[in-house]
Amino acid sequence: MAGALLTDLYELNMAASYLRREMTAPATFSLFVRRLPSERGFLVAAGMEDCLEILAGYSFEESDLVYLATLGFDDAALEAFAGLRFSGDVRAVAEGRIVFADEPLLEVTAPIAEAQLVETILLNQITFQTTLASKAARCRLAGRDQVELVEFGFRRTQGFEAGLAAARVSAMVGFSATSNVEAARRYRLAPAGTMAHSYIEAFVTEIAAFRAFAEDLPGRTTFLVDTYDTLEGVDHAIEVIEELGLHESVGVRLDSGDLAALARATRRVLDDAGHPEVRIFVSGGLDEHSIAALVEQGAPVDAVGVGTRLGVSADAPFLDSAYKLVSYDGRPVAKFSEGKATYPGAKQIFRAHGLVDQLGLAEESAPEGTESLLEVVMAKGQRVRPSDPVLSLATARTRFEADLGALPEPARRLRDPTAPKPAITAAVARLTEEVRQRER
Amino acid sequence: MAGALLTDLYELNMAASYLRREMTAPATFSLFVRRLPSERGFLVAAGMEDCLEILAGYSFEESDLVYLATLGFDDAALEAFAGLRFSGDVRAVAEGRIVFADEPLLEVTAPIAEAQLVETILLNQITFQTTLASKAARCRLAGRDQVELVEFGFRRTQGFEAGLAAARVSAMVGFSATSNVEAARRYRLAPAGTMAHSYIEAFVTEIAAFRAFAEDLPGRTTFLVDTYDTLEGVDHAIEVIEELGLHESVGVRLDSGDLAALARATRRVLDDAGHPEVRIFVSGGLDEHSIAALVEQGAPVDAVGVGTRLGVSADAPFLDSAYKLVSYDGRPVAKFSEGKATYPGAKQIFRAHGLVDQLGLAEESAPEGTESLLEVVMAKGQRVRPSDPVLSLATARTRFEADLGALPEPARRLRDPTAPKPAITAAVARLTEEVRQRER
Questions:
Q1: Is there a contact between B374 and B347 (Cβ–Cβ < 8 Å)?
Q2: Best residue in A8, A64, A253 for a mutation probing chain B (most B CBs within 10 Å)
Q3: CATH topology for the B9-132+324-344+373-386+418-439 domain
Q4: What pLDDT digit, counting tens, does each position of B362-390 carry?
Q5: Class for domain A9-132+318-439, per CATH?
C-alpha cells in the first residue's frame, strides 16, 4: 500500500503554500519518541525499511491530483505536486538497534515541502513498527532463551499490514517462527501451525481427529489436547504417536487452563509413557509477564505461541513519537512548549560501551570510543543500499542481539524498568540556549 | 491487500486434511466476542464490508501454490487449493449496529475447508474494525453532540490500513471529518487539516506564517496558535483575520496546555475583539474522558481533533473475539472448556425495543416484537448486494444513530459501564444441554 494521499490533509496544505512561495530551502526534521511508556525500558528501532521503500517511490498519480482539485487545491499547487519526487537525504538508526527517548530514529533533510509531505507516512510506519518490535523484545527477555517463541498474533492485529509487520519484527528480536504464512513467504521466516479446536470437533472422537491429522500432515504433528480434557487428550496423543510410530518433531499444545500445572502433568504423563521426545507447546493469551512466570516456575515448556497481546502491544499500543523541524534554511529551530520542548539542529547519537548514549549535533565529531548510530540511508532521493527484505531482516536481528547483550539490567526489567536517558553534548546545550535567546 | 496466504498456517493444514478426506459437508462457524473489555458497555459492529470483498475474491494464485509446495503441501493439497473459491453463505450483523458479548457478528456456512480457511481473515478484520468503531463511539458519547469530532489518528495507527479503517469507522459513529486524505477520497468523507508547528517555525515570525497560510489557502484558515505563546498567538490570528478581511470558516487551534482554560481565555479575547465567528478547535492527546471533561466544564470548544488514543483504541486495543465451529454436517457442536464455553448451532439475535436481546437459534422464528439482527449477506459465494463503499457507510451511520438512541444508560457510561448480556432462548438452552450430554 502506498500513494501520496496516504497523508494528513495539513501536510498538503503546508506543502502547497511552500511550493507557491518557492520556499525550497532545505529543512531537517527529526523523528523521535518524547517519552517511553512506563513499562518500557528501551525501544527497538523498526519500520525504516518500509519508509525507504515508500520514499523511493513517492509521487502523485493523476487520479490523486484530480481528487485534490475537488478539495480546492489550485492549478499551481497541482502542477507542483505533479512533478514532485522525494529528492532528500535520510539518516536513520538501523533497524534492530535499541534506542531511547529523545533519540532521533530518523532524520530527513529535503526541500521543506518534500520533508513536510512525508511526515505522516514516516511517523505511522516507524511508530507502530517500533511499538511492536519493543513489545516482542520484552517477550524475548521474558523467555530467557529457555523457550522457543512463536508469533501467533495475526488474527487480532490491527489489520493485515500490522500482522505482517508483527511477524517481521518478532523475528528481528529472536522469535523462531510465525503462524502468518504470507509474512513467512515475504521475509523467509519459518511458518508454524498446528490445528484448531474445530478440527477436533469435526471428527466424532478426539483420537480420530489426531489420527487423521498425523496421517495427512506427517512431519508437523502437534496435537491440540485441550478440547475436552487435557490429560485425556495427552493419552490420546500418545496412543496415536505409538500407533503410527511418529518420531520427528511431535508435540502437544496446551491452550487453556493453568498452563504451568498442566505442562508439568503433561510432561510426567509423556515421560512415564517413554516419550521424552514429545515437545510441549503452550499458548492462550500470553504476554511477557505470563511467559516470565512460566519460565520462573520452571514449567517444562518447550515453546510458546504469543498472540494478540504482542500483536497489538496491548499494554502500550502506541508511542509518543514526534516529527519536528530542527533546522530550516541553515537556521536551527526548536519548540519550547511545555512538555513538548525539542532540541534544535540535526543530531547524531554517540554510543559508548553499555549503551551509554550522548545526543550530539550531526556536525560534531564522534567522541572517542563511541559509535555513531544515525547513518545515511538515502542520498538525493536514492537509497544508499538496494532493498533486500531478507538480508535487511537478518542484519537487523544481528544488531538487536548485540545491543540486547549490552543493555543494562534496569532497562531489561519487565516490571518498572528504568530507561537510560541520553545526555546531551555541550554543543547541543549551547545551540539550544542560543535558539532560546533568539526566540525571546 | 488480499491473498489466500494472509492466514495462519494451521488453517491451511486443516483445510488440506479436510480436502484430502473429502470432508465437504457444510460447517457453520460463528464469530463473536466472548467478553467485553471492562471499559466497554457495548460494541459497534464493523469490518463486514471488507470481509465480504475478500470472500468474494478469495482464491490461491499460482505463486501461492509454489510457495506452499516448499512447505511440504503435497500435490493433492495444492490441486485442491488451486480450484478453491469461497462458495458458502454468510449471515452478518450490519455494520454500525450496536452489539454485545456472545452475539454472533457473523456466521459462515460452507464446506468445512472453506469455512476454516477464512477464519484468520474474518477475525482480523472484524476484531480490529469493531475495536476502533467502539472506541470512536465512546468519543461520540463524550462529545454529547456539543462539539464537532474530527478523526486525527493516521500518524500513529498501527499501519496505513488501520488508519483508513479508523477514519471510516469514526465517520460511521458520527465524526464529521478526518485528516486522512486517502480515506476521505475512498469513503467520501470531509477531509480536515490546518498547519503544523513546523510551518510556523519555517517563517521568521508567527504572524508572517499566519499571513502566508491565509493568503495561500483561503477558505480553510485555522491558525495553530500555541507554537510560542497561545494568547499572543490568538492576537496574531486576529491581526491577520482583520488585515485580510477573513470571514468564512476561520478558526484557531489549541494543541497543548490546559485546553479548557485556554479555550475560555481564547474565546474571551476573540469575543472582545469582535470575532464571535472564529471557531475554537482543540487537539492533543485527547480521548473520550478528556472530551467529556471539556464538555462538562462547558469549555467554549467548537471542535476537537481526536488522534492516537482513538486510532489504536489505546485503553482496549483488541477484543476477545472467537470464530467457533457450532455445527458440522448437521450435527451441532460446542466447546465446554473453562472460560471458553460456546453455545452450539447457528444463531440469530432477536432484538426487542431498548436493545433487549435474546440469543436464539437461526431456525427459530423471531419472537413477536423483535427484529432479527443477522441477515444473509452472501449466498453461495455471491454477495447479496453489490459493494458500494459510500452507500454502505451512509446506511451504517443511520443504523448506528438509531441503536445509539436506544442504548440504555448503564451501557453508555464512559466509566464502569454495564454491558447488557443477551438472554438465551429456551431452544439454545435445550440444544446446549443435549450436546453436553452427548459429549459425556
A1: yes
A2: A8
A3: nicotinate phosphoribosyltransferase (3.20.140)
A4: 999 999 999 999 999 999 999 999 999 99
A5: alpha beta
